Amino acid sequence: MKLTDYEKSILAGKFGEEAKKILEVMVKIYEINNAEDFIEVKEVMLASTQNMSIGGEMGMEFLSRLADSGIQFKAKTITDPVSMDLEGWKRLGIPEKYARKQKKSVGALMKMGAVPTWTCTPYLTGSIHRYGDHLAYVETSCVIFVNSYFGARTNREMDISALASAITGKTPNYGLHLSDRREGQILINIETELNTTSDYDALGNYVGKIVGTRIPVFKNMDQNVSTQAIMQLGAALATTGAVALFHVYGITPDIVLDPFKYGEKSITQKVSFTNADMKKAYQELNTTRSTEIDFVSIGCPHYTIDKMREVASYLKGKKVKKGVEVWVCTSETIRNMGLLSGEVQTIEKSGAKVVVDTCMVLAPVKQLGFQNLATDSAKAQFYCSGFGLGVRFGNTEKCLQTAITGKWEV
Amino acid sequence: MSLAYQGRSICNGVAEGEALVTKQGISFLGGVDPETGIITEVDHELHGEKMAGKILVLPSLKGSAGGMWILIRLAASKKGPKAVIVAQADTILVGAVIIGGIPIVDSLPAEAFQSLKGGDRLKVNATKGTVELIKKS
Q1: Would you say the pTM of this structure is higher than 0.90?
Q2: Mind listing the pLDDT tens digit for each residue in B21-73?
Q3: What angle do CA B126, B131, B134 make, to 5 degrees?
Q4: Chain B neighbours among A 54-113 (CB < 8 Å)?
Q5: What superfamily does domain B3-135 belong to in CATH?
Q6: What is the CATH number of domain A182-283?
Q7: Where are the domains of chain A?
């Protein structure tokens, strides 16, 4: 294993205990995966909220001490959303104490040189990768999107391994960085029409449960499928399955370039996705029988400008029902674009809120008192059910209709 | 004469204690209480068991990478396992044991996982990568 003098000095403790342990983890991951070399990464993505929400005080202290050591990120390092809107947290009802802690962690990341993207869809706003680019990403919906749609290469990283890549600019060369580990293993034949983006959520939710850790290949997908639909499919797949890559005939680059290698060679099972399967997926995604909805949240993963336009067009001239909180989640970059074109103003005039830097999965929605959520995202459905909210899942229009009436129509 | 198995060292350290054995994977995020170290996943064969002070023997972790922080927190509050014996260590586990300072051994011969039973008294020398069976349950 070749380490630079700088890396050796970190391992010797030059930047304190935290940086030392981070590099020890990198060395161990190299060893247990029998990697033969390191590769340079073009970009790193941290899921910084793992430190804050899950790691609790310990996670935040760890990050603060790391930043105080004076260490700097060598790789370009972008950031996943945090647990609140960094400017508009007050209007979401986030307590001040909570906000202070978030800002401390944000400050630590900035101190080390992070690029503050705070979005799970950075590939819409600057992180555009080329085929074969090596990356080290944590956010699972982002890992699967860049691997599949761009043909870039990243393993499913976690906080510490991604911090190691941020500090050193490299990652052990194993797993999905290698072409031979990217071959499709299970073929999914689509035998029903997919119309709305949430139909792709249902597809991903259903297939994720079947494939486990295997790489799925989709056949017979609409060749005019939208980027937003591919985003929804990936996010849902990576939620119910431990999936970091999928191929779509005629659409994703690996399989377009070599259909035999990625689409046939290693396939050991074939399954179909029928209209009945889709109906079953929709049923399973509804985890409450209640029709009273107090929280409508859409935009997981963070919406594209196309989706913002669709929402604005629906809400134009309408009013959100009193007592219903509505979050339309996106990145700050897309929000600013929507402000210039007027969509954001249209949405907010209805009483809905355009929320940035966070979403219903990462904000403390249970503590904010919400009972029943309506969403168009299978990923959000899974996590919010886990937090103890009742969830209704349906397409974007149905969610917006619920925002206006306060009732989920069955 | 006690029985000893040779595996691979992932993180240095020595620990002795009672084995808590499962053939199922564990998800620390959502499957284990971060305050008490009790396994809360309803369908898990160790549901309701406490891992504090035990030597956890399991095939692998499952679920979210965020689970790493739960194991680190449990290690700091002494509510986590004293040591971990795992069939195959993954990225999440490596992060947790190195940051949390938990002795861990993997890649033991297959018969070790067949014969180790809950309640066995074990001595784990993670520095050498060995697991010694001191007393059968």
Answers
A1: yes
A2: 999 989 888 789 989 999 998 889 999 999 999 999 999 888 777 888 899 99
A3: 130
A4: 54-56, 58-59, 62
A5: Phosphohistidine domain (3.50.30.10)
A6: 3.40.50
A7: 5-179, 182-283, 286-405
Which chain B residues are Cβ-neighbours of A160 within 8 angstroms?
A: 68, 95, 98-99
The CATH number for A5-179, chosen from 1.10.150, 3.30.499, 2.60.40, 3.20.20, is: 3.30.499
Tokens representing residue A408 in the block: 């989920």
- Position A338, amino acid: G
CB A52 within 8 A of CB A62: no
| pLDDT tens digit sequence for A256-300 | 999 999 999 999 999 999 999 999 999 999 999 999 999 999 999
Q: Which two tokens stand for residue A152?
A: 């870039």
Tens digits of residue pLDDT in A148-205: 999 999 999 998 999 999 999 999 999 999 999 999 999 999 999 999 999 999 999 9
What span, in angstroms and rounded, lies between the C-alpha atoms of A361 and A340? 28
Q: Residue A51 has what pLDDT?
A: 53
CB atoms within 10 A of CB A279: 12
- Return the CATH number of A286-405, one of 3.40.50.1010, 3.40.50.20, 3.40.1670.10, 3.30.499.10: 3.30.499.10
Please tell me which of the candidates A25, A156, A386 has its beta carbon nearest to residue B95: A25
* For chain B, percent of residues with pLDDT exceeding 70: 99
Indicate the pairing of strand A135-137 with strand B121-125: unpaired
Interface test with A, best of B68, B74, B102 (most A CBs within 10 A): B68
Q: How far is CA A241 from CA A249, A300, A361, A383, B133, in A?
A: 20, 17, 18, 14, 37
Answer whether B46's CB lies under 8 Å from B37's CB: no
How high does pLDDT run on average in chain A? Answer: 95
CB neighbours (10 Å) of residue A111? 17
Least confident of A56-60, A77-81, A319-323, B92-96: A56-60
Instruction: Verify whether the Cβ–Cβ distance A54 to B70 is below 8 Å.
Output: yes
- Contact by Cβ (8 Å): A393, A297: no
Cα-Cα-Cα-Cα dihedral of A130, A136, A142, A146, to 10°?
20
Kindly report the backbone phi and psi dihedral angles of residue A272, in degrees, each rounded to the nearest multiple of 5, phi listed first. -115, 155
Compute the mean pLDDT over every residue in chain B, rounded to the nearest whole number: 92
Closest CA to A382 of A374, A391, A372, A395: A391
Read off the pLDDT of residues A205-260 as tens digits, 9 standing for 90 and up.
Answer: 999 999 988 999 999 999 999 999 999 999 999 998 889 999 999 999 999 999 99
Q: Strand B121-125 and strand A390-393: pairing?
A: unpaired
